[in-house]
Amino acid sequence: MPNILNDLASISSELFLSFVLIVFLISDPFLKRKKIFYFLSLFSLTVSFVLLFLQPHSDFLFFNTLKVDNFSLFFKGIVIVSSFLVILLSERFLEIEGVYLTEYYFFILLATVGMMFMASSVDLITIFLSYEIMAISSYFLAGYLKKEQRSNEAGIKYFILGTLSTGIFVFGFSFVFGLTSSTSLSSIAENIRNFTSSPIAILAILFIMSALFFKIAAVPFHMWTPDVYEGAPAPVTAFLSAGPKAASFAIFLRLFLEAFPAIENKWKLIIAWVSFFTMTYGNIAAITQKSLKRMLAYSSIAHAGYILIGFASGGEFGYWGILFYLLSYVFMNISAFGLILFLRKGNGWGEDIDDFNGLAKRSLILSAGIVIILMSLVGIPPTGGFIAKYLIFSSAIKEGYVALAVAGVLNSALSLFYYFRLGQAIFMKEPSEEIKYEPDPLVSMAIVFSVLILLLLGILPAPFMHLARISIL
Amino acid sequence: MEIARLPLLTIVTFFPAIGILILLFTNKEKTNFIKWTANIVSAVNFLISLLLVVYFDPSIEGFQFVEKVSWVPSVGINYFMGIDGISLLLVLLTTLLSFLSVLCSWGGITERLKEFYILLLLLEIGMIGVFVSLDFILFYVFWEIVLVPMYFLIGIWGTYNKLYAAIKFFLYTLFGSVLMLLGILALYFIHGAETGEYTFDAVKMMSYNFDPRVQFWVFLAFFFGFAIKVPMFPFHTWLPDAHTEAPTAGSVLLAGILLKMGTYGFIRFSLPILPDASRKFVPLMVLLSIIAIIYGALVSLMQKDWKRLVAYSSVSHMGFVMLGMFAMTPVALQGSVLQMINHGISTGALFMIVGIVYDRRHTRLISEYEGLAKVMPLYSAVFAIMMFSSIGLPGLNGFMGEFPILVGTFQVRWEWAALAATGIILGAAYMLWLYQRVMLGTIKNPANEKMQDLNWREFFQFVPLIILAFWIGIYPKPYFKIMEKPIYKIVERVNPEVLKAPAKFPLKIFPSGVEDAKHSK
User: Fold this and answer.
1) Interface ipTM > 0.85
2) Which residues fall within 8 angstroms of residue B54, CB to CB, at 6 or more apart?
């Protein structure tokens, strides 16, 4: 096997992170100062990000189970950046909560490795394995605060529902394998052509879709989202809402565009309806929320709905829009959840919208930044959120899904109502004494960086749009 | 001629950003410095915008001061700015009213000055940008940018019901504008598919004939965006709340400029790009306009709140603008555009007038005031001029807008003009009655006995508006001249019959009006 070395070179980024993980496990018992792991994880993520640019492209790695193309590199980049930002947010949180353990960074990096493999998997087996690496790490992370009831509940709930959905996922795979006697996406695509009207094929994609809808939190498989997002520690919530969602969209796109294009007309219709219900439900449910975490949880459901518009309508603009949307989505969601880490309420954190009352009087610059994040979430220019929505709605108009586009824009106008309740609290209400504003330089850095990127994506979108365009499948 | 080569429109649009940057890094305790900076920046921007007048050539057809830079080449978005006569007038109105509203906040705004002036300057950028953009996406960007500072202006410095008014304003207009975005995207893809050139260039679309069925749906999408902004009946319900609760500067800019964004959208984009649909929608648009004229005036009559009365009068006046626009004759359109400017001048001034007594007494109830003319003679004189300007007294600007609108409408259907004319009578009724109730009579409320008259700063903020009111009222020729070419072009596109057929009532009102241009062709 002479080309095994080439294959290894093509996944050098993942290999490097895996190597660091082994170092974590070995060195942990011998090191007193655990803070070194914080720097080590930031450093190793930076290195693996750089390695992404050096990896040779290759279509048939490891017996045609992995693929390194622009698409996978794009998602790997998103995943690494999001993990990096989450780690920046986490340090102070862990210190204050007193759960300063190596495992936290270990699981974040492990999940990152899993997500990176998800982005380049082109075989049912590798898809399943990488998906599980990501999923199991995130169950641990959701329940990380072991003394807090909410966190335990979130961990257990996420675990039970998550494994159930994984079971359904694999069940769907077994049908596909039964029909096509292959696990490789390219040969599935060839063989499934003979079964375009077979009910088994429909059943198979229904199962697979359900599991993926669960992961991206689409209606009707969204129930876990608000509870898990609320119960999980704030930086973990930021993590769960960003990277895993992007990576799940990566395998969603990969599976359906590479393996099932032959039965496209069937799954597109399902996705269109799911998209409609997801965004509408997410937006309506978000209106009444008092907790910022729950509100953002429902908002992330709504965002999954918008992204699915691009999936349902398809075409160049659709997939282009999905990639650009996920790029800006990661920054806006991580920074939005990160805001919680600025406020202390007693022994806890300022998780309610009311806790942000009068923040503008304490820090005008931060408040202005929050307004930009909110504008991006609504989709108001000049922010990345606007360009993302513009591309998504373009695809719907172009491919003739006008009703979906109308529903989408009306939903995004409606979303203003709940997002700007936060703006209202910050600027138009009086601060209360029991909330303490405690800025931390690292958290601030992550937020400022995200805000600047969101503005950059909105004002000078051309290079990023180009990047997303060359990365579509 | 070096100045003419500068990117003047970009400078005018983004000059306030300098003020924003200075203010961002100013200590919020330095209130005087903050006030002076904002005032100077907005005044200088007004002076810069006057340069546009100097170098503007009204005899050229098409857009001037054009700047075109590729922004997102892959989808055909350009940074494309340019003005014609119509947008020139609106840009000047914007820079003037922005300066005056910064000035009129000197005494009235006492807390969180820094944020206040930053938001006002940001608002100015957005408003100017709307009037100079010729690329749809650029236009949309500025259109939306306007909403955010206005939301905060109402929500932070407003009165009683400010939170409700602020979010209502934001939601209403956002709902309209996202639908407009869909219309823009539809035009983009259809234009691209049919010509092979995918572009958001509005000028190119103005010379392309879209299929009438496409036009119908896009007109509807644009209609929601623009009609909510105007606001046309029945989308006007956000207006009284937002105008009434906003701080004085906010009300002045809302009434003076933001409403014009809607009418400007119709005249700039809907009429020339969607001429067939525009013609088809005339009955509906005229009906809604006439309802707005009469309904707005009737509701104004009933108001107990001074500011709310002025707010509802805007509904009525904007009805005139829309009526003139959809009469689609050259004369009516001229009146319509001039009425936009007039409404900015007179209603802007009326809101400042309410603001002055509100700053002194902190109430807007009409019943709280009586006989103010005794203690505030100068104030009552200013109010009288602006009231007559708003009513449409000949010799003042209001007349020069309403009269051509009625004449032009009359040429099409005399019934429309007759119905609209009742609005003028009602307008005189509610304004005169208001004046009588607050200014005349004897002072019965002891709190009014020691009311201060205008100080020099407050008086100064009315001076430019009074000069303009008389100027337009007595010698409107330069204004008509500036808008002559673009209006002729729009009429040629949307209603060419009216230029060919001899007018039913060949009235020749204005020496240099479009009528001349027509005959000389």
Assistant:
1) yes
2) none
